[in-house]
Amino acid sequence: MQAPHQPAATLAFKALLAGLLAGLLLVFAWPADGFTPLVGLAFVPLFWLVDQGFGPRVKYFSLFLALLVWNVGTTWWMWHSTAVGAVAAILANSLLMLLPWVGRAWLVKRTPAALHFWGFVFLWMGFEWLHLNWEISWPWLTLGNAFANHPQWVRWYNITGVAGGSLWILLQNGLVYQALKAWGNNSLPRQQKMSWSLASLALPLVLWGASHFLYHNTAVDQPTEQGSDQRKTASLAQGTSATNPPNVVVVQPNIDPYQKFELAQADQQLEHLLALTQSAIDSQTRLVIWPETAMSVAEWQDRIPQNPYYQKLFQFLAQHPQLRLLSGVESFKNHGPTTESPTARRLDNGQYYDVYNAALWAGGGQPLQFYNKSKLVPGVESLPSFLRWLSPVFEQFGGSTGGYGRNDSAQVFRDASNPYAAAPIICYESIYGAYVGEYAKQNANLLAIITNDGWWGNTPGHRQHLAYARLRAIEQELWVVRSANTGISAIIDPQGNLVKTLGWDQAGTLTFNVPTQMTSRSFYARNGDLLYAFCASLGLATVLFASWRHRANKIR
After folding, report:
1. CB of 254 closer than 8 Å to CB of 505
2. Which of 62, 142, 472, 535 has the CB geometry, 3.0–4.6 Å to 125, for a possible disulfide?
3. Which ranges of 367-414 would DSSP assign to H, the alpha helix?
4. Any idea what the Cα angle at residue 268 is, between residues 263 and 272, rounded to 5°?
């Protein structure tokens, strides 16, 4: 379709208005405070925009405007942590999101009209999958995250993950656009117009219906469930029973993140954490969760048992041998004179070491276990290999220097005398559904998210982060316990419901009898992002077909 003959300024204004409208619809639809149904209309102005035959400059600038407004309106809170990083992330992500639209324009010139929409859908899905897995991964605005505050709408995420939500949104927008276009075409029969309209209404009704059926007819492990004889025997061996089930204590210390790393306050902060813990535990408590970097005095991992700072903690745990503590900790690890770690630093004595944002498992006289955060925040905690030459610039503005070291894979915390097999999920890692699924594959029976969201202040950032945790519960069909330094800490059931929360800027604890049994792993936990892989494969096939067709037409 060609743009009508109008003054260039008028056409440009209409294109910009379409871009602005789309961006605002996405902003107003987004968690944590948005009106979610708007996401089913947000791409309609963009589909109109690319159908009108505007010149490349007007078209791509208007598309970029939409994506920029979306990014600014939903992730502006990053400014509170790092102004330069926020600007860089928002601009970079907006440009990257433009790639599927550029790919669509390329396909339009080389494929039949029937493939234009589907080709774009496959390219967008492929882009989201790539954005989950490459070095500059930033999947905060994955379309499927839009439903995070409505777990009852997307109970089928236990099959598809957020990819199912992204596909739904794209298809929904496509159907609405086709319906509007049909009603604007006087030459089309009324029956065809009604068909598009009914299809655009039927898709959400079918998916909502399926989700509500699963939501109300899927068994969820409840804290009052008696359990099998085998589980009862195991519980008795661990000092608990069906009538006295084990509980988890989540601690929220509410320590200013910009002050918590001051050594002068380290002992006082530890005493505060221990006092909160002591006030909440009872004879049935088996697991205590402290937030990310709760232990703020960095130490070599093999020297932590001897460090004077940690002795109060170890004395407390010795007094309560039934307890296990899962806590965030800043730590180092010495690799010796040789290492393959790309982030390792060299000491003056020729030894190499890494710095880790880690989780610690301690208690019961068991050896300490460590998990080092694997999914690192680009620019803040890590630099992609092709940008490491910019390390001095990032260091000057408060970003990464050499970057944190990382684990190669997920690692579940467990020991034989404790009923919980806990997945230590550190902050940013909680937005990666397939990665969290790696813990479920290792038979974790609890997802423990530890985070420090106070860097962003009282903004939508920490509420979005909490909402995304609800999707992880649905995907893995597991209970989530979330310890956030300044809030919001939460207990989330496998249906994504917020069972208990502790609000922003409060110090306190949450106690809950979290079930220890795991009925079965979800389809998504077993298989990961199959839907993304399938769509990306179709996208690649579409590109190959378009290339072949273009060459064949040239030969003719």
Report:
1. yes
2. 535
3. 391-396
4. 135
Diameter of the chain by CA atoms? 84
Question: What's the DSSP call for residue 382?
Answer: B
46 pLDDT band, cuts 50/70/90, is: very high
Query: What's the sign of the alpha-carbon dihedral 109, 113, 117, 119?
Result: negative
- Per-residue model confidence (pLDDT) at position 235: 44
Please state the φ and ψ torsions of residue 400, each to the nearest 5 degrees. Answer: -70, 150
Segment 320-353, tens digit of pLDDT:
999 999 999 999 999 998 888 888 888 989 899 9
3-state secondary structure of 159: helix
Bridge-based pairing state of the strands 446-451 and 480-484? parallel
- What whole-number distance in Å separates Cα of residue 288 and Cα of residue 341? 32
- CA quadruple 524, 526, 529, 534: dihedral sign: negative
**One-letter amino acid of 369:** Q
Which residues neighbour 9 within 8 Å (Cβ) at sequence distance 6 or greater? Answer: none
Residue type, 267: D
- Which value, to the nearest 10 degrees, does the dihedral of the CA atoms of residues 295, 470, 44, 209 take? 170
Mean pLDDT for all residues in the chain: 90
pTM for the complete prediction?
0.90
**Cβ count near 98 (within 10 Å):** 17
Question: Could you tell me if 54 and 17 are in contact, meaning their C-beta atoms sit under 8 angstroms apart?
Answer: no
Identify which has the larger pLDDT, 296 or 540: 540
pLDDT by residue (tens digit) across 459-482? 999 999 999 999 999 999 999 999
Per-residue confidence (pLDDT) for residue 5, from 0 to 100: 62
- In angstroms, the CA 341 to CA 432 distance is 23
Average pLDDT over residues 68-88: 93
Residue 519 three-state SS:
coil
Most confident of 59-63, 77-81, 334-338, 349-353: 59-63
Cα–Cα distances in angstroms (integers) from residue 325 to residues 89, 275, 358, 414, in the given order = 35, 14, 13, 11
* Strand order across the beta sheet in which 480-484 lies: 422-426, 446-451, 480-484, 489-492, 498-502
CA distance linking residue 493 with residue 267, whole number of Å: 35
How many C-beta atoms surround the C-beta of residue 486 within 10 A? Answer: 27
What is the chain's alpha carbon radius of gyration, rounded to the nearest angstrom?
26
Residue whose pair of structure tokens reads 């009282």 in the numeric block: 458
Per-residue tokens: 548: 């072949």
> Model confidence over 141-192: pLDDT tens digits?
999 999 999 999 999 999 999 999 999 999 999 999 999 998 888 888 888 8
Dihedral pair phi/psi, residue 449, rounded to 5° = -95, 125
Token reading at 519: 């009925």
The partner residues of 358 in beta bridges, in order of sequence, read 329, 372
Provide the pLDDT for residue 207. Answer: 92
Torsion angles phi and psi, residue 241, rounded to 5 = -150, 175
Q: Which residue has the tokens 């962003």?
A: 456
SS3 352: strand
